[in-house]
What we know:
The structure is a homotetramer.
Chain A: H1 3-12, H2 19-31, H3 34-50, E1 51-53, E2 60-62, H4 74-77, E3 82-89, H5 92-101, E4 106-110, H6 128-136, E5 145-148, H7 154-171, E6 177-180, H8 196-204
Parallel strand pairs in A: 3-4, 3-5, 5-6
Antiparallel strand pairs in A: 1-2
Amino acid sequence: MDLISKLTEIFRRFPGIGPRQAKRFVYHLLTQSASDRKELAELITELSGLVKTCSRCFRFYTSNEKAKSIRECPICADPHRARESLMVVSRDVDFENIEKSGGFNGLYFILGGSVPILEKEPMKRIRIRELIERLRAETDEPVREVILALNLTPEGENTQEYVLREIAAELKDKAPKLSVLGRGLSTGLELEYSDADTIKNALKNRY
Amino acid sequence: MDLISKLTEIFRRFPGIGPRQAKRFVYHLLTQSASDRKELAELITELSGLVKTCSRCFRFYTSNEKAKSIRECPICADPHRARESLMVVSRDVDFENIEKSGGFNGLYFILGGSVPILEKEPMKRIRIRELIERLRAETDEPVREVILALNLTPEGENTQEYVLREIAAELKDKAPKLSVLGRGLSTGLELEYSDADTIKNALKNRY
Amino acid sequence: MDLISKLTEIFRRFPGIGPRQAKRFVYHLLTQSASDRKELAELITELSGLVKTCSRCFRFYTSNEKAKSIRECPICADPHRARESLMVVSRDVDFENIEKSGGFNGLYFILGGSVPILEKEPMKRIRIRELIERLRAETDEPVREVILALNLTPEGENTQEYVLREIAAELKDKAPKLSVLGRGLSTGLELEYSDADTIKNALKNRY
Amino acid sequence: MDLISKLTEIFRRFPGIGPRQAKRFVYHLLTQSASDRKELAELITELSGLVKTCSRCFRFYTSNEKAKSIRECPICADPHRARESLMVVSRDVDFENIEKSGGFNGLYFILGGSVPILEKEPMKRIRIRELIERLRAETDEPVREVILALNLTPEGENTQEYVLREIAAELKDKAPKLSVLGRGLSTGLELEYSDADTIKNALKNRY
Lengths: 207, 207, 207, 207
């Protein structure tokens, strides 16, 4: 297989990319200057050294620190965050969007995925062991509230049920307060096309 | 203009219908039996006699009653509905969807439209006069709470602001309690694609 | 079932219309004046009397003629059309679009449908008997060329094969010249997304 | 700007990629192994050395040859191709799709772009100078036919007109035979939605 085909194959595995667009990516790179390509290659290589996984929240973060001893992201290390509040999300992109909204000042925990319906080994899909451990850890500032912030899709709701069940089973009466994000009208919603659950919850949360 | 063209023109004015689909409708009718067409024509004609506008909530409803004196829809006439609670919606389709959800047991009021942004004569777009009058009416069961259930779109929010402002200006301290539907995650929502307002409200309404 | 529901049911059977849009159609009619509704009802009723099916080409056409003896559409009756050339199409909408293009001056024949792949009784899906009869008819101006103008979709190609096979089997050496529409680039096409057949044909038909 | 943001910025410039998908690409890379990332970086770097631009047709091709003297792609160097026939296309992806169709055995010429409508300096958008030179070149096998294979879009047709005009003006009576791809029905087309040009051409090219 030649170089163009090899690169096309790799781009095909990028999320949401089909064979045609993968090929277009290669031709796009070919129309760039050699120095632009070199920059891209170097940045990709640097990911291995500079991007680390936080040992507390498991999110990816960039760091120049060489020391391998400390592996805590800036948010987990920030003394001004409300450390007793832990928001559990599926992926880094969810964390980013929530953090960007500016509405939350606590800490996060990245599950690293979600649990498909009928999945027989959910513990292999998400970091449930690590989450339980995080909640059990006897740190000076224990978690008092866990907020599950998962997609309001069937898979998201299945993940939510699984996480709630596991926390209850493992931590029993030592479990922190558990809550989930409120339901209601989200921006852009038209009432004509809303489902009954959304309407009922919007009514309950009227203000 | 021949008959087929005339009918096509009328179907073109149906909501969401372009010239091609309008023409398809005519051909669809042509492939039906003469008796099917006659039934459709009769039902359309009957709309004038059988469908009335409720004098209280202004929604359309079907009635065989000949008497012109009573013009109240079954919901407004139902003694088991919570009469002190009034939900204000833009259109009949919104009412239908909310009523179908089964989450509300009060009465409704149909504004008959919404107020576009920068509209100079909003009172011509919606039944604001009629709403104020409805709230002023000295009935035995006064409205204690008005729930605005409008689309969470720019036009819906503009309508909401206008209605709230008018009620406050007209009814002053005699105004009922005013509320709007709660915001939060609506069914199907993915956190990666949520806006800041939705996230903040979902967080505030967590449960 | 009440009137609004009955009408909604009928509109749901219109091509491409789901339950929500069907209901919107009814509300659209309700916001019209009674005289507008009456006009629509009358036009629909008139379809039965004024729209006839041409006995030659089977297309629908509008006519004020009461006489039942003559049932020929203006195109089939037009002495200036090239009567030896017959274009066979699936539906009235196809005929309309081709006639609007102004590129053809012969006569038409409407099959009234198409033959799905693996259909066991294709003769029940399209007017193949009537087409054979039309080609056999000893009129003063016999058909010398049949042009099949069918969609370039799997179902259209299946219909084409079936019609060609039937004409060959039934008319044998008395069959007129048979042709199909040329293939090539159609307006809007991008070469990057063209299939091999289209490219090969476009190359063969280069000019 | 940190590493993740820098990489996101670069992926945003990939064709058809918005900010959200660009970010997803970075997270996708982060979930890969360090060796997978290294492989991608190396392949991108190798593009500079191994992918060359053919000096005859200007398409990109992969080559291990170190010698800088020969810069001819395998197709231009292939003695079995019909060298008197030259197909002119906009981009490499068009060339690829046409070559994959197997319908053409001549040589190609990549314009490297297209000419937008009202563009004042079309010679800066495509390799028109190089094309004229290629046609003028006194090689042992002169080009006898130029086939323009451009998109049937407004921009593609504008490019076609410009190229035809320039060849005529520059080469005058020494110009090779010029042709464009044939028009007609392309795969998937439905007659109901075809434009007049396509129908007329399909009729002319019937077979």
